[in-house]
Amino acid sequence: MKAVVFSEQGSTEVLQYTDVPKPTLDANEVLVKVEACAVNYLDLHARRNRPEIEAKLSRGDTPHILGSDIAGTIAEIGVTVSGTTVEDRVVLAPCIPCGVCSDCHCGAENLCDTQELIGFQTNGGYAEYVKAPAQNAIQLPDTLSFVDAAAMPIAYLTAWHMLMTRAKLRPGEAILILGVGGGVGSAGLQIAKLTGASVFATASSDEKLARAREMGADATINYKDVDFSEAVLDMTDGRGVDVVLEHVGAATWEQSIASLAKNGRLVSCGVTTGNIGTINIRKLYQKQLTVMGSALGTVRELRTLVDLAAQGKLAPIIDRTLPLHRAGEAHLLLENRQNFGKIVLVNA
Fold it and tell me: pLDDT for 266-286, tens place per residue?
């Protein structure tokens, strides 16, 4: 089969479109013919410098195939698999949990200490075929395209878990969404508006902010021009927002905290600009703020998102589609922040 692979970390030049063996199935697995696979920032980090990938490559476990956001059709099923048949249209839940720990047993598999991520610890969807545990295959309705489905597992699942499960965003509240042009940011905007919240959004260009307003953002801020926390406080008469969706990290941490109203909640899922942020503890307790982390989401939550998309209540934002062999170009577009929404690779 054809796949985009790499055997050493580095620039996009390490990505090679070549022939590799088709995966062979264990008894509990399914083989999916990949129709669409979305690109994530984690793919870029894995290609460049993530130590987990470096360790995998140093063990001689090469080449590696990226891709966690996968939609396609079932091509083969393992001998113990039931409830799934060949030709079923599916999207894959990206997390492979252990299935036996207390977190897995209580339905919080995204907290599993030994979970693996498809396309990170395992080979992923930058290929014609990918294998996964049958439990990860979620049926798709005919009304939902493979491209739209592939946009959902990482970005929409992450945003949903952040806003609905962790921050418990409520109708009428105000939320600040950082980097609204990215996958998590644009997904968070849709989910927040569906919830009935008022949305403040930041981005690096006026073009992206115009798109955000078209999608329903109530106020937009170009973070290259101003301190966004000061802008938020000005626009809310000094009150601030109830929730901040934070996925940038060190570069925005203090501004994000400063943007919160009393009893505000900051929920973080990423650290693209660094792991370490400082906080004024006195302001934390005086304003009675809550700071929380969030990582991916559960299979149950992904099923909810698929249902909402099938009903037309959520419409995944697709920046563009590219053929699989142009994965390097997709990485460069994402690195240079030239996208609004998801970039999706497709098998022609």
Answer: 999 988 777 888 888 898 999
